[in-house]
Write a structure and sequence with these properties.
The protein is an alpha/beta fold. The protein has one domain: 3-Layer(aba) Sandwich (Rossmann fold). It contains 13 helices and 8 strands. It has an 8-stranded mixed sheet with strand order 1-2-4-3-5-6-7-8, sandwiched between helices. The longest helix is centred in the middle third of the chain and has 19 residues. It comes from Micromonospora pattaloongensis. This is Pimeloyl-ACP methyl ester carboxylesterase. It holds the Pfam family Abhydrolase_6. GO terms for molecular function: hydrolase activity. Keywords: Hydrolase.
Length: 310
């Protein structure tokens, strides 16, 4: 069972943190979840790396402010910039020494970019590897939901208006009967050709834990962020970027632009997969994590033992 603890941030928000692996491991892997989700979305990767790795790796997940089991956030703090600052605090608290590999899904990947932008010296000193899963450095530039431009504009208008309304709903949470009714919509929006019933149940459960303020409040900065220049300044840091070719939120051009900005990036496009790659393509995501860990510390992470995709 992972250790569970709380990290208290300077503004009083408490982040729920889960960690497994030896506390004195030479490498720490911190995995960040996506918008409206929580750290449980990485559980298949944690299980696989725990079972397959002969080398010591500390693995950490946490729930972002206003998500999962972390405490609520003020509306003015529901921004990617704040999440970047939160990540800086997490690194200082849970991995005060040694190299760190950061992996981020969707909003989590954008959080990593914001950390690099807002804390460049700390980032350069601590971060030895990166894994970007179904994320973007260009806001909603490429998000067309797999639909025509006209329909996309209408959906974005409705989404933006709805997000503003939700942001003012405070700490209410989505009603579970409503989420059950919306499950087919979540299935269409977040998953590709096939979907494990357990995966959609976990996803729905995570959305139910996010406050309406968080669901609506983070949307503007997610849509506006532009961080390709930040990535380009990172040089040849070992990195991986994964995307599903059925991803309606962060389609392949998002990952392609990340890989173009970061020359050390291994790009993987998963056929038939959507936005929830950790659940849809767990082996491929685990293999990408293992590959970056090998590149960061091959003599310390059991390079021959880390799992590869089946």
């Amino acid at each position: 069972m992972p250790d569970q603890t709380t990290v208290r941030l300077p503004d009083g928000v408490r982040l729920h943190v889960r960690a497994s692996g030896p506390t004195d491991a030479p490498v720490t892997l911190i995995m960040l979840h996506g918008w409206t989700l929580d750290g449980r979305t990485w559980r298949r990767q944690i299980d696989a790396l725990t079972a397959g790795s002969a080398g010591p790796v500390r693995m950490v997940t946490y729930d972002a402010r206003g998500h999962g089991r972390s405490s609520s956030t003020r509306l003015r703090s529901a921004t990617l910039a704040q999440l970047g600052d939160d990540l800086a605090e997490i690194v200082r608290e849970v991995a005060p020494t040694g190299p760190v590999v950061l992996a981020g899904h969707s909003m989590g990947g954008m959080t990593i970019m914001e950390y690099a932008h807002r804390h460049p010296d700390e980032f350069a000193a601590r971060v030895a590897g990166l894994v970007f899963v179904a994320t973007t450095a260009e806001g909603h530039t490429h998000t067309v939901y797999g639909l025509s431009p006209r329909v996309t504009r209408l959906i974005r208008l409705a989404e933006t208006t709805g997000a503003g309304l939700l942001a003012r709903c405070g700490e209410w949470h989505p009603h579970r009967p409503l989420l059950r009714a919306l499950r087919p919509t979540l299935r269409w929006l977040l998953f590709g050709d096939s979907c494990d019933p357990d995966a959609i149940r976990l996803t729905t459960s995570a959305v139910a834990r996010a406050s309406l303020r968080s669901i609506g409040g983070f949307r503007p900065s997610i849509g506006a962020q532009q961080r390709l220049e930040t990535l380009a300044a990172l040089g040849d840091v070992p990195a991986a970027a994964l995307v599903g070719d059925r991803d309606r939120l962060t389609p392949p051009p998002c990952a392609e632009s990340i890989a173009a900005a970061l020359p050390g990036t291994e790009l993987t496009v998963c056929p038939g997969a959507g936005h929830m790659l950790m659940l849809e393509r767990p082996d491929e995501v685990t293999a990408a994590l293992a590959a970056v860990l090998r590149r960061v510390a091959p003599e310390q992470t059991g390079s021959a033992e880390l799992p590869l995709a089946a």
